[in-house]
Amino acid sequence: MAIKIEYRGKIKDIKLVNSLIDEVDEIGKILGWKVKMAQEYSSRKKYKLYIDLFGISLTPPKSESVYFTFLQDGTLMTPTTILLDQVEEVLEEEYQASTKTQFAGPDIHVAVVKLIKYVAKKYLENFEVKDATEYWTSEEPEAVESAFEKVILNTEMVEAAVRKIRLPKEVFIQSFSDAMDMVLNPKWEDLK
User: Fold this and answer.
1) How high is the mean pLDDT in each 10-residue block of the chain (192 residues)?
2) Which residue, of 29, 33, 68, 102, has the greatest Cβ tally within 10 A?
């Protein structure tokens, strides 16, 4: 399970983008988060976007970016989705933003949810959210702590299992996937 927040929607009125940018920019600067204007994504030479975006993104420490970037029709859209769409057709229902906070910790996760909730209430419509910790609906910090503890525990269990792997020296492994099959196949048989 990855700890992330997935969200989608539209800005109520495209004329509100500048107000949203000003407000989110101020919040980002106060918090010391990296701020990036949508135009910076469009002007990058390495990954040239074929569609202009309007808006802003913030990047909290050790977290993926929080996007409030929009197409001309007001649909919330990320630069990543546009780049993906240039390679393969992205279905309209896949137009969403996602912010992984798993490595940032519970405090940043709660802060990101609060920011998205504030912006959504003030500026967005047809808004949908999936929060892996369920903090969006519960507003209980304990739910976030519990979700992070589960991820840490699962990670530690996998790390411990991998450390125990002892393969014969004569075995040549072409991939970690092959090695995992060798280790897990007997265990799967026990579960049947």
Assistant:
1) 90 94 95 88 53 87 95 84 52 72 93 96 95 93 90 78 67 63 63 54
2) 68
